[in-house]
């Protein structure tokens, strides 16, 4: 059983003002409507409740493998829930916001129902009211149940009106549907279920539904005050880094060349293709190297490390895959029963250490590269070597000691975790004094775990061990390679740089290494990347990176605060040099902005802006008066101020 689902939303004008722009996630959920840059938040999703009422599949981030593309003013998502397939199109032309759903069943099935679900905010106030069309009496929200969908009785209606102090949402259908109401059992949010089909679906059956959407709400344009505390300098930010894992021989070189020519890249991370370096346990890859018989991919990885090292940047070498002889079980590049990767064969630890060290020694002796740090990529998850937390600690001790015995100065990354949520993975090594001499830095990847409390754990861990903190893979959506058109969306670009600004402020990393500065997750478009054969060009994401990379080298993090939500602020500075770089991301409406606490001696700032209209454009110089600088912060923009 399958169905195909299409959504089309058209955005227009109401009374001469912009109604707003619906914001569509690449997995198919509408996350709200933008009004003058501010998001009016609510969420829609498609849901399939199987016949037992227990198995429930819902469109969500990293739950499916969707495809996203833009065609002019249309955004189109293709995805599936199990055997149910969807196509969703968001169209930004005239008329009220409209959602058209086309469901096609690809096999016979019995189900509780397929639903278009609207999730409304949990916050209720005295003005909150939910009313179904045709009912004069509002819904008593307090009495809504958290009981499962199966067993709920629907009400025939053409839609609903939701009103609160901060949000109005109206959704209407062309014909009456069975609408279910309940509260989410975990969050307490109100869920409105429009029934697309309940009971049975026959293979080939097509069902179409249409909905009209309106959303209104007040726009917060209140002035914001950003404050710097320059009395204590935190950790140094060396600058933007980059990942250079080579995967696309045709399109990688142009992106690497462009990035290294147009960005100040302070750190580099490359792959050790271990699986190709020594496929057989009893061979010596150094002998093969002397005969110039190494696989091409290995030689290119070695040359990539050398190229970065020659620029003066420290180089991290990470291994993704291991040779068959070094792992337990059969090698699987994809998860098996939802488990990624293979553990190392601990009975062969000495052979493993020797193989890895020979690669690092070959880099040093033949290419002149003294590798700064080594890691296994995301071994907490198993991409593609999997370790327990204790195995990770044991490896740091064992391999660290082995490298030292061979005269290598290379140290280990503690972590290199798949995201910030898996913090506990580094605890055994932190608690083991025998690991400490071999830990050069702590690192995580920024794909998930963005809560301030979570990020603070990593900053405190680095302070405890007195080593740098590195974000060794920086970006926001690990699944985005499946829908690469999203890389050109303003929402993605702004979300990414907003996270980096938060990381600078909360974590104070030595570097954030962009994933990647190659054709994979590329900040460039065209040139054949992801099938786009237009002219190679930088995107908004690239100009965000260029602005961040423009921070003068060696500035230290400064404590900051903001008195309004929606604006993220980070400050870097050096009181001895009297140099400062300020990064401000506004993911909301335009507002007047004041930055306070600017140290004496700073008289003016050069200002740069990147948004949908401007690409690292230099604006009018802003003068400092009484330790303050004032300016109008445009909606949905990234500003960088660099002192003169």
Overview of this protein structure:
With 644 residues, this protein is an alpha+beta fold. Helix content is 18%, strand content 36%. It is built from 10 helices and 37 strands. The strands form 7 sheets. Strands 18, 29, 30, 31, 32, 33, 34, 35, 36 and 37 form a 10-stranded mixed beta sheet that branches. Strands 6, 7, 11, 12, 13, 14, 15, 16 and 17 form a 9-stranded antiparallel beta sheet that branches. An 8-stranded parallel beta barrel has the order 19-20-21-22-23-24-25-26. Strand 6 and strand 7 (56-58) form a beta hairpin. Helix 5 (349-367) crosses helix 6. The protein is globular and about 80 Å long. The termini are far apart. The model is unreliable at 1-19 (pLDDT under 50).
What structural class is derived from the secondary structure elements?
A: alpha+beta
| Share of residues in strands | 35-45%
- The outline comes out as globular
Rg over C-alpha atoms, rounded to the nearest angstrom: 27 Å
Terminal CA distance:
65 Å
Tell me the total number of β-strands: 37
Number of helical elements: 10
Give the fraction of residues assigned to helices: 10-25%
Unreliable runs: 1-19
Overall mean pLDDT stands at 93
Describe the main β-sheet briefly. 10 strands, mixed
Write a compact overview of the structure shown.
18% of the residues lie in helices and 36% in strands. Helix 8 (452-465) links the parallel strand 24 and strand 25 (469-474). The model is unreliable at 1-19 (pLDDT under 50).
